[in-house]
Please model this.
Amino acid sequence: MAPCASATSATLPACCSGRKRKWMEPSGRVVAQRAARAQVRMMRPTPLAERIPDMKLEVLGSGGAVATPKPLCACSACVKARKKGGRHARLGPSVFLHGPDILIDTPEEISVELNRSRVRNIGAVLYSHWHPDHTAGRRLFEMNIEWNRSQKENRTTPVILTEKIAETFGSYLSIMSQFDYFRSIGIVDLRIVKNDEEFTLNGCTIKPVQMAYDYSFGYCIAEGGSRCLVIMDELKNWEPDAAILSTRFDAVYLPLGVLDANPITGEQLIEAGHPILEDEQTANETLAIVRKLNAGRFVLSHIEEPDCIGYAFARKLSRLYSKRTGKRIDLAFDGMLV
Model:
């Protein structure tokens, strides 16, 4: 039974007599309701405004391989993400380019991300690489199936893969087998391009950028006078070529990298020689790349839950990194529009 709304004292009203908890202590029901409201805030859709006319990048998910909040985790970032939702929570890595209407990567949570986004149409889909945090939401394409038993044909979404990505999709997680099935029922149009082939798509020009880990790609995307560079992940050991170094980008989107050291105190957080440092880019290595590139704005994403970077700390890091590099740097959050 709920407490009487008219009660004003710190003691329990008569209808709640016998309860031992204090008046101001939330019940289990209240705690559950608060958690539910936070979950709603994480999933709340953005009102469908007018179509965004110019090329804009919307961050659908700013997290990495581990979402924030991580199930069962009691760290400060996860506790706050559960309580507040919104910008404090991070889902899997994905971005959307308004204008050409291009979706890049489909993590497990892509349906939730799209339902709360400004996206009104998906003109095509690109992939960065085969890892499950970037591909495991492939069932998204089943939205193209006409389930109402009408005579209408299924809708079809173009999916463009480089040759190397297509090869790895055939080697891992049965990804290509699933796309072959989707193609057979007409819900995707699978197109393969050469690893270094520049192509046009929905009015923009796209050039794949192969990473040092050759199974992974970024994309240089140009539309009219706007140019952006989007690299979703796997930045380790990558060196930008002369063409990229000589290009002035409106925005560059990069993975933050792991925090091997406290960015404020310099305290070492990951000991030298740890296996993760052999494969994963560190934040300091990412900043070294930022210093080489010419862009009006840098957005750092793929923010991993183990680094415990909440929204407030992310804003602090944005200011710190901007000051250290002399460039405008922002750490991403879900729903950010660049």
In short: The chain has a mean pLDDT of 88.
